């Protein structure tokens, strides 16, 4: 009888050792090891030591696999009140961490060796191979995103709750990667085509002066060509758009607001970007461009705003630009002023003024293409941010390239099919001056039942400058709204009111003119003015989701949205969708 008790006791001790003691010892040992490895990962990433990073990631992958095994041996914890939720949460966190380490390790193995010493040209050349090797990464990213989506702060152990901001950041990054990974994979052959790896490409570059805002980002102050061959710039030029005035044969009547406030009955290339939908604006640009006798064919168009040039200059450093009266040092801080000064105050010949932007941009782009290591990483980050914030816009004649551009929202397209409410505020500075370098814009949206009030306020802190850059702000304002919306009234305008359905983008559009004052003196408070739209939203429109698109060429718009008891205040820098309202 005693032997039976001994056997039962030994069995219980054995089970306890297997399912309690051993897992807890494993978890404790692996937790200490994991903390060390995470420190080593951070250090290797900071030093851009990719071989060391790959080695540590492989070790971490093994450590997390051990933690998962130990956790599975503690499966019975799911049945314990309170601790069951904690157990499930931690297991999802560990599983997500394992999937992340696996994805990171596979990504590093797909990158070309000595990546840090390669420039942009080499990266472009290797990109199709890199993207093909990244295919195995996609399922691990999706698994990691799904696992971390199940983690909630409330059921984390106290020691991990302090890491919640980092967990949330990782979760958002993984969700974005899961969404865009297929597009990254598909981008390999497209990048080959776009960068001229297969045959030379020529692009029309339109430089937009964002100080004089237009629908796609700014007055089309200059045009030029960017020619690429096997990922290398072979030619870069720029001239004032006025130089094309006599050569353009297409001369249609101007839209009524341009005719009235810009004082020209004829529509010109410099104002061709009247539509905020970039493919529409580029189609109009091509109507002007294609009417030029012997105009060289182009594979696409890049819209480059002055804000993007500033940010790129901050990365590559000051550039020296030779002029007819000496050399001008152009920096991120003075680029806008120097371009305006050269165009209007320098006293240089027309040929010299034309050459200034082209010479400057060629120097900037050559430095960007020659950058390596950390400098290249910084520049690529600036380009991606510029594309996300619509300070740089792309349009390609190649169907696959254009589809990919629109899928990642780098093409400045208005969302045609949107679930729920929608708004885009579009300003057109028709005053001929550069107030938008200084003006700050605030939009407050209030929705009570189906009645929506859109209150737009412009604040101008700039001091008077004898009407050179700053004048009373002459602005044609349009709001793009869901189809079926009804206009109830406008306050603050001083011009005619337009309202129509834009079938190309499936939006109801309301437009009008407003003039905002400037400061009375340098010591006076900032000048401001407000325009208010009151509309009634369609009865069948869901108000649980609200898509707000940002106008290209505006660095930031300060938003406040209030729907019943729900409110949100933020700085709109990218297109945003509010949900759960």
TrEMBL record:
Q: Which domain of life is it from?
A: Bacteria
Q: Where are its TM segments located?
A: 6-27
Give one Pfam family, short name only. DUF4012
InterPro entries, per database record? DUF4012
Provide this UniProt record's keywords sorted from A to Z: Membrane, Transmembrane, Transmembrane helix
The protein, known as: DUF4012 domain-containing protein
Species this chain originates from:
Sulfobacillus benefaciens
High-level lineage: Bacteria, Bacillati, Bacillota, Clostridia, Eubacteriales
